[in-house]
Design a protein that fits this description.
The chain is α/β, with parallel strands linked by helices. 32% of the residues lie in helices and 17% in strands. A hairpin with a 2-residue loop joins strand 4 and strand 5. The longest helix is centred in the middle third of the chain and has 11 residues. It is globular.
Length: 136
């Protein structure tokens, strides 16, 4: 493993965090208070019954492609674009969203995001652009 090379397109890019867990566990509070104070952009996906946060933020096609076709790259790209100028971007997810082992494996292998669900945190270690492994 190596540090991101100077030619790696992911170098210096903001981090992405998908934050899930049970209702009332503090996902939104952690995101809106702790992370935003550290220059993270917070997208509150858990907006029910007011609206669906995925639709509100205009990422339905990318989200569905990840969930239905196991392709995280379009979601990764749109979230990274929105995160420019921030240290990172966090999606606080509604409690019914639970990633299965296939989605978790895809995210772990494709550097699309960091997933935190309850106490399980998965750090993504491969750049989707150049394939370089990085230790973060």
């Amino acid at each position: 493993m190596h540090a991101e090379s100077a030619s790696c397109p992911e170098r210096g890019m903001p981090k992405i965090l998908l934050l899930g867990g049970p209702s009332g566990s503090g996902k939104s509070t952690f995101s809106s208070q702790y992370l935003t104070a550290r220059n993270w952009l917070h997208l509150e996906i858990d907006r029910w019954p007011e609206m669906d946060g995925i639709d509100h933020y205009g990422i339905r096609a990318e989200w569905n492609r990840f969930l239905e076709q196991n392709d995280p790259i379009p979601l990764h790209e749109v979230l990274r674009q929105r995160a420019i100028g921030h240290a990172g971007l966090v999606l606080s997810l509604p409690s019914p969203v639970v990633f299965d082992s296939q989605h978790t494996a895809i995210l772990q292998n494709d550097d699309s995001a960091v997933i935190a669900y309850r106490v399980n945190v998965f750090f993504i270690t491969t750049c989707p652009r150049c394939g370089d492994e990085t230790k973060r």
